[in-house]
């Protein structure tokens, strides 16, 4: 079996890492494409995944995104049409499903945030199979043309599948020389370049300022873009740490006392690893986050002074592990 996987954002590297390993253990030939966006290429290198980098993110504007989409579709079509793939897999890459449909390749896409309207209108309609968590109400997906049998759902979080074999690296904090008596916080900014996150989010900068001046805290900021990196660097706050390159974020989360994130994946990784986590997300909450809040595994933050800044027992959180082979079989069902 020849499998094509398109990885277009940093979080997708982790999703597909165990699936690529399972496919190759079964004797499948796997080829990976990527795009130049945030730390995606660095993380592929970090995890030893070879990929052909085709295209880059279109930036903030709709015009830039449209031009990037057109250019990347052309590049992917030229790349894939001579490969004779049996199936194509993606996490939210509408470029893959659109290209695969045009080339007659069965495709499956997975995602866990249902309100990225344009992305899903394109990606779901072109896909053969749409694979999402059970916590997303199916009626929120029918407008994208995703109904059974095209739509299939899995229990839990995607992070519980791809972190099933994860053991934290105990040396992850070595480069930062952190005082173990201080509360360690991991901070993730909002996805400023995403069309589904167009709202101003003053809460996150307020949180950065509050923690950056707190004498009892060390806060490691993991920016998404160079613009965010330069903003944080310019603050020059004494309690902030700004890594220069992509880091093992999952080990960092496991070593932290709490996580504050305006995005989705890092929130859910913290929940999967049993680490206290707060969300400052400024857009409409999806079904996954709604369920985590109901379970008490994710806390909405409205004021940084409400953060529970205390040391935690590193082995005290409950961790959930699920078999990634289950996720792989749902994706591969596109072939049927």
Secondary-structure blueprint of this entry?
Layout: E1 2-7, H1 10-25, E2 29-36, H2 40-46, E3 52-56, H3 62-80, E4 87-91, H4 94-103, E5 107-110, H5 117-126, E6 129-133, E7 151-154, H6 158-162, E8 183-188, H7 203-212, E9 217-221, H8 226-235, E10 240-241, H9 249-255, E11 258-261, H10 265-273, E12 277-279, H11 287-295, E13 299-300, H12 324-332
Parallel strand pairs: 1-2, 1-4, 2-3, 4-5, 5-6, 6-7, 8-9, 8-11, 9-10, 11-12, 12-13
Helix pairs in contact: 1-2, 3-4, 4-5, 9-10
Keywords:
336 residues; alpha/beta; seven-stranded parallel β-sheet; six-stranded parallel β-sheet; 13 strands
Order of helices and strands: EHEHEHEHEHEEHEHEHEHEHEHEH
Structural class: alpha/beta
Oligomer: single chain
Largest sheet: 7 strands, parallel
- The DSSP helix count reads 12
Query: Could you name the ranges where pLDDT drops below 50 across 5 or more consecutive residues?
Result: none
- Share of β-strand residues: 15-25%
Quick check: average pLDDT? 91
N-end to C-end Cα span: 13 Å
The count of strands amounts to: 13
Considering DSSP H and I runs of 4 or more, what fraction of the residues is helical?
25-40%
- Give me the Rg, rounded: 20 Å
General shape: globular
Q: What is the spatial order of strands in the main beta sheet?
A: 3-2-1-4-5-6-7
């Amino acid at each position: 079996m020849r499998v094509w996987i398109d990885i277009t954002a940093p979080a997708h590297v982790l999703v597909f890492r165990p699936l690529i390993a399972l496919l190759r253990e079964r004797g499948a030939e796997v080829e990976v494409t990527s795009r130049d966006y945030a730390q995606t290429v660095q993380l592929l290198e970090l995890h030893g995944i070879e990929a052909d980098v085709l295209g880059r993110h279109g930036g903030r504007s709709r015009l830039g995104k449209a031009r990037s989409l057109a250019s990347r579709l052309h590049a992917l079509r030229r790349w894939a049409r001579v490969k004779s793939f049996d199936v194509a897999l993606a996490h939210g890459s509408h470029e893959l499903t659109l290209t695969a449909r045009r080339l007659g390749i069965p495709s499956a896409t997975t995602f866990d945030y249902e309100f990225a309207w344009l992305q899903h209108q394109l990606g779901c309609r072109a896909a053969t199979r749409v694979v999402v968590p059970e916590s997303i109400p199916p009626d929120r997906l029918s407008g994208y043309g995703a109904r059974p049998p095209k739509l299939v759902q899995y229990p839990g979080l995607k992070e519980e599948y791809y972190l099933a074999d994860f053991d934290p690296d105990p040396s992850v904090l070595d480069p930062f020389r952190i005082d173990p008596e201080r509360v360690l916080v991991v901070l993730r900014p909002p996805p400023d370049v995403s069309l589904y996150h167009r709202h101003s989010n003053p809460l996150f900068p307020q949180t950065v300022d509050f923690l950056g001046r707190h004498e009892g805290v060390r806060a490691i900021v993991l920016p998404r873009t160079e613009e965010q990196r330069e903003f944080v660097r310019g603050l020059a706050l004494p309690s902030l740490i700004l890594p220069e390159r992509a880091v093992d974020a999952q080990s960092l989360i496991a070593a932290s006392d709490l996580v504050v994130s305006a995005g989705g994946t890092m929130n859910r990784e913290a929940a999967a690893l049993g680490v206290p986590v707060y969300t400052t997300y400024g857009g409409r909450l999806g079904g996954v986050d709604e369920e985590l809040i109901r379970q008490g595994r994710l806390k909405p933050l409205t004021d940084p002074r409400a953060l529970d800044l205390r040391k935690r027992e590193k082995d005290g959180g409950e961790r959930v592990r699920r078999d990634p082979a289950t996720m792989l079989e749902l994706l591969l069902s596109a072939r049927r």
